[in-house]
Design a protein that fits this description.
By secondary structure, this protein is of the alpha/beta class. The chain contains 14 helices and 18 strands. The chain has helices spanning 16-30, 81-87, 100-113, 130-140, 142-149, 160-163, 213-226, 241-250, 265-274, 292-299, 313-319, 330-341, 346-360, 363-379; strands spanning 2-6, 34-40, 42-43, 46-47, 55-58, 61-66, 71-72, 75-76, 92-97, 117-121, 152-155, 174-176, 197-201, 231-235, 257-261, 277-280, 304-307, 322-325.
Length: 380
């Protein structure tokens, strides 16, 4: 089967959608299918050198990066995408939202070429300031056309079909397939846990404020009153790095918070293994999809603390792999952190999460589920 994936960006650019497409594509290639990714030539937050353009091969995945002329609300605008897709030979096209440009042109091409299109719908498109007006216009017309054209719509958590005002009308097309985790890469290592140490990981920019670092820093003040030596590692870089540094300083947390910056792939597993617990206090249900980083932490045998809006929250509670609180509740978050760090059963909690990931969220299982969707689309 020839599959074209159209994320707005791709590995080694770091992000939830990018990781999803990378791991799904890698496993589909292992199953004997041909996968090509067409995306913007942005790598590591900057434009890739045009001299290195063309098709490259990453773990069997063909990758073609197109020049972009700028961004609108975190979406790279690639003028040549339509022509490029029209020239491609494929059986099925797989698009990804909430970055509309690539998804919309993918839908147009699927219609012109009479090929099925699968759309993974991570979350609704929302925004602040100018981006808010753009999102309202997009949701009013283009989104409706995209959802109408889509052969199948994949959501990564079951609650989203009711939570989203745009998906309810198309529930007959919707199928739930969660994200996965690379259990060969993310696994327990023989490393000593750093006592009373938390780990948070995200891109530190305006678009990702919903990941809840503001809330976590404020909760840490309360945690510090009970556990004075509590430590928070903040992984990731972005335009708000200095804002968060100043915030931590203003809260009197200079000695308790360490900003690690961008963490290379080779060291990420180490931080997941060394921390006492991983924290993802997401605050916005419209923007938060599943929480892939929680799966990565659990695969490493590390307990997690999160909010009830992430896709894996119910499973975390069900198997006792961590603590789940309401979004934006500073008191509940601080209490959950204290409870976790003082828990003598941390190792067993971590084992529960590892078992959950192995049984339900390995990428080979996710890829097999997706392949069934592709085959169903082709049979229509």
């Amino acid at each position: 089967m020839k599959i074209v994936q159209t994320p707005v960006r791709f590995y080694p650019y770091i992000g939830g959608v990018e990781n999803y497409v990378y791991n799904l594509s890698k496993n589909l290639v292992k199953m004997g299918h041909e996968v090509k990714v067409i995306c913007a030539n942005e790598v590591g937050g900057r434009m890739k050198n045009e001299k290195n353009s063309g098709v490259e091969i990453i773990e069997g995945i063909k990758v073609e990066r197109l020049k972009y002329i700028g961004k609108i609300a975190n979406t790279n605008i690639t003028p040549s995408l339509l022509i490029k897709l029209l020239k491609e030979d494929f059986d099925i096209i797989h698009a990804h939202l909430p970055t509309p440009w690539s998804a919309d042109w993918s839908a147009v091409v699927s219609k012109i070429k009479n090929r099925p299109i699968v759309l993974t719908y991570y979350n609704d498109i929302v925004g602040k300031g100018f981006a808010r007006y753009i999102s309202k216009i997009y949701n009013r017309i283009p989104l409706k056309l995209l959802l109408k054209i889509a052969t199948k719509i994949i959501i990564i958590q079951p609650k989203y079909v009711e939570r989203s005002p745009y998906l309810r009308k198309y529930r007959d097309k919707v199928k739930v397939i969660p994200v996965g985790v690379d259990t060969a890469r993310f696994k327990p290592l023989n490393l000593k846990k750093e006592e009373n140490t938390l780990f948070f990981l995200s891109i530190l920019d305006e678009f990702h404020r919903y990941k809840g670092l503001d809330t976590l820093l404020r909760a840490l003040v309360k945690v510090k009153s009970e556990i004075p030596d509590v430590k928070l590692w903040v992984g990731g870089s972005g335009t708000l790095m200095e804002y968060y540094r100043e915030m931590a300083k203003g809260l009197g947390l200079e000695k308790n918070v360490e900003f690690l910056g961008f963490i290379p792939d080779g060291r990420l597993v180490e931080y997941y293994n060394r921390c006492s617990a991983f924290v993802l206090p997401s605050t916005n249900p419209e923007q938060e999809g599943f929480g892939i980083v929680l799966l990565e932490a659990m695969a490493c045998g590390t307990p997690v603390i999160t909010t009830d809006i992430v896709g894996v929250a119910d499973d975390i509670m069900g198997v006792r792999a961590g603590e789940v609180v309401e979004p934006g509740d500073i008191d509940s978050l601080s209490e959950a952190i204290v409870k976790m760090l003082k828990n003598a059963e941390l190792a067993n909690i971590g084992k529960n999460g590892k078992k959950l990931v192995e049984e339900k969220y390995s990428w080979d299982k996710i890829a097999n589920e997706m392949l069934k969707v592709y085959e169903e689309c082709l049979a229509l």
